[in-house]
Amino acid sequence: MKNASLCERFGIDPQNAWTLRMKFSKPALTFSGQVKLLASRGLVIDDLEQAARFLTQVNYYRLTGYILPFEADRATHPYARNQTNAID
Predict the structure, then answer these.
(1) What DSSP state is assigned to residue 13?
(2) DSSP reduced 3-state for 80
(3) Are 52 and 45 in contact (CB under 8 A)?
(4) How far apart are CA 8 and CA 6, in angstroms?
(5) 65-85, pLDDT tens digit by residue?
(6) Which of 16, 19, 40, 70 is deepest in the core (most CB within 10 A)?
(7) CA distance 66 to 69
(8) Under 8 Å CB-to-CB from 7, ≥6 apart: which residues?
């Protein structure tokens, strides 16, 4: 088993490996929260509810991969001015 060999390599008891979960610094966002985040960064979204439903089918990370070229700054992620609705 691949996980068991990793545990052996790092001296971790395989029975307790689940306790080594990664700690995240950002809270998980709901679909509505993800839409609000995109809107706060300057993306024009005409129908927030439709956008949230869209994200249930196509996840946030897949969508942002397509709209990445429209970011004005990669560090803070604001979208360039006058961008149209990428979700319609």
Answers:
(1) -
(2) coil
(3) no
(4) 5
(5) 888 888 888 788 788 776 555
(6) 70
(7) 7
(8) 13, 14, 17
